[in-house]
Design a protein that fits this description.
26% of the residues lie in helices and 20% in strands. It has 227 residues and is of the alpha/beta class. The strands form 3 sheets. A 5-stranded mixed beta sheet has the order 3-2-1-12-13, with helices on one face. A 5-stranded mixed beta sheet has the order 4-5-9-11-10, with no helix packed on it. A 3-stranded antiparallel beta sheet has the order 7-6-8, with no helix packed on it.
Length: 227
């Protein structure tokens, strides 16, 4: 009897694009043994953030916390504490209005990183500063960084320095999203899979251990891509 190899399937930033997520899942043809992992930013900008959260939750998938997920959670915390809402965007307020209690409870459990020792890999939403263990990374950097400044500190701005992934020396391979402007990134020790679905491009999955890519095109551009 043939043995089915376990696949680890990592999916890039969904941003509320439920139709594209379902299309990608159909194309992947997941088996019960496959492990499904999302790189964060399930919500905001796209048409059905609540639907995406519910779908991912129902799949029993793992996910790290993205900066847009965190922005929505900040609204929740302020409401629970009875304090003034932080400065928020309308897109985040719209998401917060539509989430159910079970969705909130699930979002609150999302970690900042995940490790997969059997793959010598880790998942974060945005990036890591070389030379620091995952445990020592600043939470904001894990969720927002795109580049390294000349002095080696993290920045969310592309114009502040060089992309962090080409400068990251391992040893763990880091799978990340967040940077739709730069798009697909594949270096020796990092793979970036935010290919801008919500901006009209594609939703991407990285499948390990064979390191293949599976993509579906966006149905349309839901937002303009800006820097």
């Amino acid at each position: 009897m043939a043995v089915t190899a376990v696949r680890h399937v990592f999916i890039g930033d969904v941003h509320g694009c439920l139709d594209e997520l379902n299309a990608l899942l159909r194309k992947l043809r997941l088996s019960p043994d496959d492990r499904l992992v999302f790189v964060g930013d399930l919500v905001a900008k796209g048409p059905d953030s609540a639907g995406v959260v519910a779908r991912v939750r129902e799949l029993g998938a793992q996910c790290v916390r993205g900066n847009h997920d965190e922005a929505v959670l900040r609204i929740r915390r302020a409401q629970q504490q009875g304090v003034e809402l932080p400065r928020v965007k309308k897109t985040h307020l719209r998401v917060a209005e539509r989430l159910r209690e079970v969705d909130w409870l699930w979002l609150e459990t999302l970690p900042l990183y995940l490790r997969f020792a059997e793959l010598n890999s880790a998942v974060v939403h945005a990036g890591v500063v070389p030379g620091k263990t995952l445990e020592r990374q600043h939470p904001d950097d894990l969720m927002t960084m795109r580049t390294l400044r000349p002095q080696g500190t993290a920045s969310p701005r592309l114009e502040d320095g060089e992309l962090w992934a080409p400068r990251y020396p391992g040893p763990e391979h880091v799978i990340f999203g967040h940077d739709a402007i730069s798009g697909l990134q594949r270096t020796s020790f990092a793979t970036g899979i935010d290919t801008g679905c919500v901006y009209g491009r594609a939703l991407t999955a990285l499948v390990l251990p064979d390191a293949s890519l599976v993509q579906v095109p966006a149905r349309r551009a839901y937002r303009e891509l800006d820097r």
